[in-house]
Specification:
The protein is an alpha/beta fold and about 475 residues long. The chain is about 40% helix and about 20% strand. A 7-stranded mixed sheet has the order 15-16-17-14-13-19-20, sandwiched between helices. A 6-stranded mixed sheet has the order 10-9-8-11-12-22, sandwiched between helices. Helix 8 links the parallel strand 11 and strand 12. Helix 1 packs across helix 7 and helix 4 packs parallel to helix 5. The longest helix is centred in the first third of the chain and has 22 residues. The chain is globular, with a radius of gyration of 23 Å. Bound molecules: ligand TXE. Ligand TXE binds next to helix 7 and helix 8.
Length: about 475
Amino acid sequence: MKRVLNFIDGQFRPPCSGRYLPNVNPATGGVIGESAESGPEDVDAAVVAAARAFDSWRRTPAEERSRLLIRVADLIEENFDELAQLESEDGGKPIALARRIDVPRAIRNFRFFATAILHAETACHITDDRALNYTIRQPLGVAGLISPWNLPLYLLTWKIAPAIAAGNCCVAKPSELTPLTADRLAALTLEAGIPPGVVNIVHGPGGSAGRALTSHPKVPLISFTGGTKTGADVMARAGPLFKKVSLELGGKNPNIVFADADLEQAVATSIQSSFANQGEICLCGSRLFVEKTVYEEFVDRFLGATKKLRIGDPQDATTDVGALITEPHLRKVEGYVELAREEGGTILVGGKRPENLPERVADGYFLEPTVIAGLDCQRRVMQEEVFGPVVTVTPFDSPEEAIAYANSTRYGLSASVWTQDLQKAHRVAAAIESGTVWVNTWLLRDLRVPFGGMKESGLGREGGFESLDFFTEAKNVCVKL
Ligand code: TXE
């Protein structure tokens, strides 16, 4: 039984409450440990430590900060197997996925921002012969970082690395559902030589520890990834304190397949974009739109590939689909399948808990990959984020109709477009209301590009220099000549 403590000022400390939350392995339903149930006092102690460390960290030369961050990346790499194992146990995700996506991306996040700060430039504006303006970018102080359970280490490092690379210190609050890799990361930052107080990690529920961070007057900046409803609460608390806020929220992403697409590739990638991480990725393409003339052929092939997915023990290297994060979440996703039936949809495949699971995971929170047809775009299942292995398929007649369907939700995070017609690809990409449009691919991430959502999918952009801009404040110095 692993007990996860807070990491404050370079030390592992129990929460002030003395209470712990059970940590459940979603694949078995068994308790595998517990994590600190922190509240405002713990967050305050972490903020004090971070503010103290900021004084010298902000003055640490970029080359030295870079060296330390690269050391963290190296240590994640050295502990690759253990981290993949922890991520899989904690979140129910297939170990193969943790090895392919989660841990490599955590390494990349640290390496990327460690080197990015060595290439940062600032602007200079010359006002005729009267003045010279230059811009200084300075860190803000204590960054509040709140991350979710679906890609725990991937998203936590996506926030910690740019925050501290830019010279801030941070208080991170990982999801209470997946504390294990954050806990290992804390130890690795210590081993790497990151000074005490630069990285602080406080575990606990969103309603207490999370809110203490978003409403803390000494935390001028919040980077949040999570659900849209929670994002609104973060905004409501941070707004009156005029904090800088970046929100990466939910998605209901369209995946549009035109008749001239390479169907083989479109099917193979759509299987990933529909069901990777059990559909628990904000970028998953949960609404598939297929041009009518190839609809039947595409759906046939797609259903065939769906049925071949192996659902089972996440620890088995051949498993494609693991367990959903919690039992309530499983029930919520099942509720959407039921709602789809009531709304007149047809379940083409899946829709139920799998039978014949290996004994070790017989009590886990599994749901078969599910494909639903026959729903109107305005139905709730087509409008709300399900966040499970559930995808809808809908035929369309023209690019205009596909665009209208794509834009028919309050979300705008990402989209995929499948076509071999270059002009159509550019035209449709420009018309879709989303922060990212992938053409003939999905989840291909260059860390330099702006990443974020339109509409209710978020606020602001992170990635590359956009992240470094977010984690610093621009100051204009105007010198009269
Ligand atoms: O996420 P929450 P939940 C979506 C998905 C999912 C839904 C709810 O649709 O079904 O959100 O998931 C912390 N102040 N996504 O409830 O609550 C919380 O402790 C400050 C999309 O699990 O948003 C955790 O650390 N913090 C998504 C983090 O916020 C608060 C990923 C995210 O949890 C808080 C996850 C509060 N009031 C869910 N309440 C994505 N965009 O990838 C909670 N938290």
